[in-house]
Structures are given as C-alpha cells and as structure tokens.
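idk why but the lab printer keeps eating my pages so im just putting this in chat instead. protein + pyridoxal-5'-phosphate:
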Amino acid sequence: MKPRDYDLDALWLPFTANRQFKSAPRILVSAKDMHYMAEDGRRVLDGTAGLWCVNAGHCRTPIIEAIQRQAETLDYSPLFQMGHPGEFRAAELVAALAPAGLDHVFFVNSGSEAVDTALKIALAYHRARGEGHRNVLIGRERGYHGVGFGGMSVGGIPANRKAYGSTLGRVDHLPHTHDLEHNAFTRGQPAWGAHLAEALETRIIALHDASNIAAVIVEPVAGSTGVLVPPRGYLEKLRAICDRHGLLLIFDEVITGFGRTGRAFAADTFGVVPDMITFAKGVTSATVPMGGVIVRHEIYDTVVNNAPPGMVELFHGYTYSGHPLATAAAQATLALYHEEKLFDRVRENAPHFENALHALKGVRNVVDIRNFGLMAAIELDPVAGKPGARGFAAFLKCFELGVLTRVTGDIIALSPPLIINRAQIDELVGTIGGVLRGLD
Ligand SMILES: Cc1ncc(COP(=O)(O)O)c(C=O)c1O
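predcted complex ->
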C-alpha cells in the first residue's frame, strides 16, 4: 500500500466512531459497477449500495457523461425566481414514476432536507386551508428521517435525539412493528402486527385530537433501524385512519424509492398511496446529492392558490434545489433504470436473495432474518453487556474478506445495487454466513 498523502486528523467523520476509525481506517479509493476498490488494493463487493443509494451500480458511464456535459453547459443557475430546463424535465420524470395524483415535485439536496420540507409543506397546507391549528407531527418509534430538527424529532432513534434536547415540541410517535416473538424469520411481510397501526386512533388521536394533527410520517419499510417490513394490512390501516381524520400521510421513501422494493416506489408495491413521498439517494444513484418531495396536486393547488397573486407562496427552498448537475444526473439515472429494467430485475432476483438469506437460519447467534425486495436484515443475539459488539465484529470481518455490509447495532443490513447478479448474491450471503459461523 502506498503511503497516504493526507492526514486523518482534520476531518470529523459523520455517524462514525472517529477514534476507532482513525486507529484503523477503512478507505475506499474507486468503484465500478458492483465493487469498490479499497486503499490496500482489495476489491470489495458492495452489499449496501453505498448507503442504500447507488441503485444503478457504481460509476455508470451514461450518468457520468450526463454530469460532464451539464458541467460544461450550465454549471449553476439561480433557482429562486429563475429556472433551467433540466429541473422541469427531472420533475416531470419523477412525477411520472409516482402513483397517480402525486404530480408536483419540490427538489432539495438530501433525505433530511426532503423530510423537513415535507413536514413544512404539511403545516403550510393546513394553514392555507384555514386549519393552522393542525400542527402536531406524528412519527414512529425506530423511524429514521434524517438529522434535521424536524426529521430528528419525528424520528424514533433514541441515540440520534438524546444529545440534542431541543427536538420539536408538538410531536408524538406510533409504536414500531418489530417483534421477534411473533415475526422472526418471516419471508416478506409479516402476518402479525397490522393492529399496531390502530394506536394512531386509539392512543394518538385520542390524546391530541385529530383537529390538532397535521401529518403522519413513516418509512414504508423502515431501513436504518434494521429493515422492518410492514405487517400485512398495516399501511392500509394507517391510510384509512388518516383519511377518516383529515391527516396527511407521508411516506419517507428515501431508501425504498427508485426500485428497492421492485417498483419505482414502495407505495406502488404495497398498493397504498400517501399524500406526499420524500425521496433522495436512488434518484441520482447517489452520483450528485439530490432529494425531493412529491405532493398530491390538491396540496400544491391549496398552498399556491391561497397566496395572493404575484407573491411567493411557500417561503422555503435551498440554494441548490434543482441544481443543474443533480437534475442532469437524475435524468440519466432514471433513463438507465428504464433501459435496463432494473426495477423488474429486483422482483426477478428477490426470491433468490430471500432463499440465500434464509438458508442462514440456524447459524450461530442469528435470531432473525427478514427481507423485502432487495433489502434484508440479519439480526444477531447481542453479546451480554456489549450491545453492537457482535454486529461490528461481523462488519469488520466481512470487510476484511471483501464484502461491504452495514450494521446497526447487532443487525446486519443489506441493500445491494439493483444490478447485482445471482452469483454475487451467493458470494455476499456466503461470506456473511462464513463470518458468522466463525464469530464468538
Ligand atoms: C428513510 C430516510 N429518511 C431520511 C434519510 C436522511 O437522508 P440524508 O442522509 O440524505 O439526509 C435517510 C437516510 O438514510 C433515510 O433512510
């Protein structure tokens, strides 16, 4: 390995144990298709599509060329009170992929910004309707909605909240649906647990009153806390309760969007249509940061038509909302998904992925395996008194053996690029199995 020509000290790494990392860094220097190249020359199979985002595979030529062409043509244009063709084209393409009725797109730069934007749109919508008192936001335990103050507040991960006392005040949380006693080793959607959605009505609406609640936000499949697949009928129940009480339903599809569940959005896969969808990651296959919110036309019309003519209707936006490089990358990425039929490919390969994973049942310390589309989790029994230690040891060993996984506590999460083939699925799962068999 060549000596490093940079120092590790100045950088504060995100969501990383900095001291541990800097004592034994894991550095990736290049990537192509399904593989990373590590600093020491090892090829590493990408079992996580980076961070659930490189859905088209790495360094795909059509996307790279589109970004290069755009950088030479229009590097940046002001995005408030001005426009450029790429942002309109990209919005049209995203809206065309969304369920019918969700047809207006607001661009941002990340999943966190998408979530905070959706929450603000929900509040602005109710206010425009003359119901500004609807301002309570409902999330779910074990939900991850990014790290902005809105997303952190509706999120349900204690570690992400506890250092920052000032989460939003008017927030409540549904119970999560993770239950090993009833659902361990379920393939696809668990049969048990739809009733947990009823807490929205029996506990949350009963406490706050529907007239005060603006919106409910959930990930259709919770990703970051370990691939929690919605029980059969659960999302349908949430939709019905929201409809009965005039609450907006937001699906955070930052992970599930753009093919991960075998269709453009999990809303299609599960046949439940929300009022807003947040997206990011896969929209550009992570080549350029981008995110957004897709809204029902009633929401757009209400906010826009209730403002006086000539006035800005929504006082919200980012310097880079609809950045030319991002919209060029999005157009090329969405074209590639279409040309290579990558969402169909997920549905074709999902049974193989599922069978390979569930063959690990019975392996030492494995207490659950769950999967949906091309996302899966293997949950391990924690070492007594050392939560997360076994998961992290598995992650390190897999990386050493040339396979990138992601761990959240003692849960190994998998979400490979959608281009993965069956031999690579076998390699990914086989390596993890070997590692788990060898771990204490
Ligand atoms: C469901 C969900 N929402 C929001 C986010 C935040 O996205 P970002 O890290 O781009 O801000 C993530 C990130 O993983 C996510 O999984």
